[in-house]
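call fold(seq) -> C-alpha cells
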Amino acid sequence: MKMYKLLLIGLVFLSSCMDAQTKKNQQGFADLPKPKPNEQVATFAGGCFWALAEGMSELKGVNRVVSGYSGGTIKNPTYEQVCSDTTGHAESVEVYYDPTVISYAQLSEAFFYAHDPTTLNRQGPDEGADYRSVAFYRNP
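ret:
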C-alpha cells in the first residue's frame, strides 16, 4: 500500500512538471512574455547574458528577465551560429520592469555598473562580437 501511495505521489509530481513546461511556438522556440499593463521592457547586451540576467533580476522593481540574442541578421539563431561571430547577434537580456519603482535611467546605471563597456567584444574571459556592450532602443 505504501508503494502504491509513493507511486501515485510520483506520478502527480511528474504530471505537474509537464504542465509547467514553457509553451513553444511552431518553430520550437519559447514565445517572449507580453508586458503586463504599466510594465515596460528594456533590452541590454553586456557580455554573458546569464551574469547580466542574474544582476538585473535582483533589482527592486524588476519583475522578470529573459535571456536571448538580439541585434543579428538571422531569425532564431542557434548557440553555435551566434558563437561563430557571423550572425551579428549579441547575448542580451530583456528586462521587464515597473517604471513606478525603478526608472530606465536606474536600469541603465546598473547595466553600465555590471560590465565594462570600454572593452570591445569581450567581458571577462568571454571573447567575441556576441559579448559586446549594447543598450537596444525601442519605440513606445
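The first strand starts at residue 40 and ends at 46.
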